[in-house]
């Protein structure tokens, strides 16, 4: 059987699939050519990340397709229900990238509270001529310890983020429509651990109470954070989105950054991805990454081997 890993797969995933008797194709096929390639090469399994879309047109055009796999959590680039209605298995790897995404959230938080994103732009330009000026510009940093982190969506990634926040000495609050409460276990290097219970509260109360807000939700029909929500937040709030583009109204966010209502934002995903708006890209108060939440070697190894395990289990 043949597997097309159109957005790539880790070496460990390839080896696991080959050991299971599968041929793995890692050729990058253009979106409009995916259906033809699948049919011409008798591909049984298509694996994607976030780049390739598997919509109704591809599903209808590829009657031999047995599995569609998503390396990661969100499956908004796959017509999941339609695929299942055609007897196609749809799989993903919801737990594999949690720690990597959570660490990136804190990369953005640390960058925001200590101005690292802006300092790293300006030090190469002015570090030798305006050292004291830059030192003064970046002198009003903020500690995360003792502050309140509001987590919107307390699923696997939200919980991984909560563990890191608790380890830093932050207060953690959460809002989640589907998880009323969750026990979060923080494990230490020596085998010891502590467990705390986080009870979901309303979005409105979270927005009013949090010093920093991080989003961990799937793609939405509308904004979770828009002008109205920004207005009720604390002055000087920091906002991070490593989830999905389109859950924050970027126009309202820029206005709030310009007014000082929002101190900084950290964005890994964007409304107009893969071509983010220039107002976002050039803003001095936004820490930016190009949708790399799960892009660590460790996460990709876990994703590859987990996908391989599921495929082998379903088709062997």
Q: How would you concisely characterize the structure shown here?
A:
This protein has 316 residues and is α/β, with parallel strands linked by helices. 38% of the residues lie in helices and 19% in strands.
Brief descriptors of the model:
Rossmann fold; six-stranded parallel β-sheet; NAD binding; oxidoreductase activity, acting on the CH-OH group of donors, NAD or NADP as acceptor; 316 residues; D-3-phosphoglycerate dehydrogenase; single chain; NAD(P)-bd_dom_sf; 2 domains; five-stranded parallel β-sheet; D-isomer_DH_NAD-bd; alpha/beta
Explain the overall architecture:
Helix 1 (11-19) packs parallel to helix 13 and helix 5 (98-113) packs across helix 8 (156-167). The protein contains 13 helices and 13 strands. Helix content is 38%, strand content 19%. The protein has 2 domains: 2-94 and 297-315, Rossmann fold (3-Layer(aba) Sandwich), CATH 3.40.50; 97-288, 3-Layer(aba) Sandwich (Rossmann fold), CATH 3.40.50. The strands form 3 sheets. Strands 7-6-10-11-12-13 form a 6-stranded parallel β-sheet, sandwiched between helices. It has a 5-stranded parallel β-sheet with strand order 2-1-3-4-5. A two-stranded antiparallel sheet has the order 8-9. The protein is globular, with a radius of gyration of 21 Å. It is of the alpha/beta class.
């Amino acid at each position: 059987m043949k597997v097309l890993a159109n957005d790539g797969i880790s070496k460990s995933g390839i080896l696991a699939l080959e050991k299971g008797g599968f041929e793995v194709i890692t050729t990058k096929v253009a979106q409009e050519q995916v259906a033809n390639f699948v049919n011409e090469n008798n591909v049984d399994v298509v694996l994607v990340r976030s780049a390739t879309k598997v919509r109704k047109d591809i599903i209808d055009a590829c009657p031999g397709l047995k599995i569609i796999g998503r390396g990661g959590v969100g499956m908004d680039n796959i017509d999941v229900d339609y695929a299942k209605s055609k007897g196609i298995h749809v799989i993903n790897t919801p737990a594999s990238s949690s720690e990597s995404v959570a660490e990136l959230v804190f990369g953005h938080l640390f960058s925001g509270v200590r101005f690292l994103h802006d300092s790293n732009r300006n030090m190469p330009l002015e570090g030798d001529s305006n050292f004291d000026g830059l030192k003064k510009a970046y002198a009003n940093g903020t500690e995360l310890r003792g502050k309140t982190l509001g987590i919107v969506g307390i699923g696997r990634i939200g919980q991984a983020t909560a563990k890191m926040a608790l380890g830093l000495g932050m207060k953690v609050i959460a809002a989640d429509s589907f998880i009323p409460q969750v026990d979060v276990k923080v494990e230490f290097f020596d085998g010891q651990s502590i467990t705390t219970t986080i009870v979901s509260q309303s979005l409105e109360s979270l927005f009013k109470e949090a010093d920093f807000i991080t989003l961990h939700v799937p793609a939405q029909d509308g904004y979770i954070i828009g002008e109205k929500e920004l207005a009720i937040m604390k002055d000087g709030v920091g906002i991070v989105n490593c989830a999905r583009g389109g859950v924050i109204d970027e126009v309202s966010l820029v206005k709030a950054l310009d007014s000082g209502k929002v101190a900084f934002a950290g964005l890994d995903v964007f409304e107009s991805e893969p071509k983010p708006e220039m107002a976002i890209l050039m803003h001095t108060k936004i820490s930016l990454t190009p949708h790399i939440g799960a892009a660590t070697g460790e996460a990709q190894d876990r994703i590859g081997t987990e996908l391989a395990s599921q495929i082998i289990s379903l088709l062997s």
